[in-house]
Design a protein that fits this description.
- By secondary structure, this protein is of the alpha+beta class.
- The chain has helices at 5-19, 50-53, 94-104, 152-167, 186-189, 204-216, 247-260, and strands spanning 22-32, 35-45, 59-70, 76-83, 118-123, 129-133, 136-143, 175-178, 197-202, 225-232, 235-241, 267-269, 278-281, 294-303.
- The strands form 2 sheets. Strands 5, 6, 7, 8, 9, 10, 11, 12, 13 and 14 form a 10-stranded antiparallel β-sheet that branches.
């Protein structure tokens, strides 16, 4: 807490220089006479380490609230911040220090290639995030007629990667896998040989390129695999890191936490069935497990920003 304007402004300037924060105002409302509460999200990167570590430079993200009180002249007289991911909001907060340390020490990063853009809406403890995605395209591969053989996930990945190569499209992230409609559930099949569908996110130019190649027949999927370009509408999703767990375990935790981390009705699943969860992978299979970014995703029917 700062007792002088000079100290407050020095802190802001230091943060800008060291971490280059990107601040997003998510919403604001009056919560008492002469009091405004805002909801915000902030992303930061350790700028001095960026030239040395590149995409491995520590990256941090926070969401929270700012409560600003005004005096009789309409000037800001107080400013109190809270973070969503911690309980102890006092200074010095061991909760806050642990939250920062966990993010600095997290080596899981996505490669610097195209990924569907989103706005972070909430960040809770343990890496639980609520995100607002823009609409994007995916190339979906499905096994048909018993095609693929062996490990279905490997067969689908090769088919989709081959389509990228034959059309000149670029690799993107994430790779999304989930059971196809009517197939065995995520809990029963995990994400291994039982998986029947896989999706690659596509940038807008590549989506047009692959769609045209499929329509003209200039690029064909291998026998036993169907490939289609599909549109995913924008919406709100919840995500939780796998952190070495089986997808079923992470999906179960995510489902439970949506009911406990927010007030009743604050986060409503669009579909509570196990098959509605997707596994998102951002790195090459050759990436060592401690460096892989992997998470389970589920679409929300609604989310209350103030929950």
């Amino acid at each position: 807490m700062y007792s002088s304007l000079k100290g407050y402004l020095f802190n802001i300037a230091a943060l800008k220089r060291v971490f280059q924060p990107a601040f997003t105002l998510l919403g604001a409302r009056q919560t008492a006479p002469r009091q405004i509460t805002t909801r915000w999200a902030m992303a930061m990167v350790a700028a001095p380490l960026k030239p040395l570590l590149g995409t491995r430079a520590p990256a941090l993200a926070f969401t929270g609230t700012s409560v600003m009180g005004f005096d009789a002249q309409g000037r800001v007289a107080s400013h109190d911040d809270t973070w969503d991911a911690i309980e102890d909001q006092a200074y010095f907060s061991t909760d806050g220090a642990a939250h920062v340390a966990a993010q600095v020490g997290d080596l899981r990063r996505a490669p610097d290639i195209w990924s569907p853009p989103y706005q972070l809406v909430r960040k809770q403890k343990g890496g639980l995030e609520v995100r607002a995605y823009e609409g994007f395209s995916v190339m979906e591969g499905r096994l048909v007629g018993g095609g693929g053989g062996g490990d279905a996930r490997v067969a689908l990945f090769r088919a989709l990667a081959g389509m990228l190569g034959s059309t000149g499209a670029s690799m993107t992230t994430p790779v999304l896998s989930k059971p196809a409609e009517g197939a065995v559930s995520l809990e029963e099949a995990g994400d291994g040989p039982g998986a029947k569908a896989m999706r690659f996110a596509l940038s807008p130019p590549d989506a047009a390129r692959v769609r045209a190649a499929l329509a003209s027949g200039s690029a064909r999927p291998p026998k036993g695999v169907e490939i289609e370009v599909m549109e995913i509408p924008g919406g709100t999703y919840a995500a939780l890191p796998l952190a070495g767990r089986a997808p079923a375990a992470a999906a179960a935790e995510l489902r439970a936490r949506l009911g406990t981390d927010f007030r009743p009705g604050g986060a409503v699943l669009a579909d509570a069935s196990p098959a509605s969860f997707s596994v998102a992978r951002y790195n090459s299979p050759l990436t060592p497990p401690p460096l892989r970014r992997e998470e389970v995703l589920v679409r929300l029917e609604s989310f209350d920003l103030w929950a």
